[in-house]
Amino acid sequence: MIWQKINRYIDSLAALILLLMAGTVAIQIFFRYILNQPLWWPYEAALFFFVWLIWIGGATGMRDEKQIRVDFFEQYFPEPLRKGIAIFNSLVSILFMILVVYYGIKVTAIQASAEYDALPFNRDVLFSVAPIVGSLMIVYLMGVFIRQIRQMFGLPKKS
Fold first, then answer.
1. Residue 81, domain member (yes or no)
2. Regarding predicted confidence, which is higher, 102 or 80?
3. pTM for this structure?
């Protein structure tokens, strides 16, 4: 299935970004504390990798329905009401992510002329994470929403 390949690619991308971030921090530690010659670029690079990693991790959390939520009251509700609340939460999350994508595009456009001191691209590349990964989150949340509707009405799982 195509979504399995896309999910594998996204998970691999997250792992690669994590390795790049850890490697960048390790290089900076080595140069700063071992060689006493701190580099000027690792801070911005590590921050860039960190932001992208957090957003991709958020998308995979939504895909797997592992996002953070307060479920204190849910545990006291009957099963049908819990399912209804989950569906409502998914809808609200989709609407929120649509706003994030919309305003993310606006902020990205504003940042197009802002330059990093050390990185060879403008800040819009960092801020583009909101519309890019936000759109992925919307797709994942729509999949979750469809799964929840199927479960609520006892429809068979789509293969």
1. yes
2. 102
3. 0.88
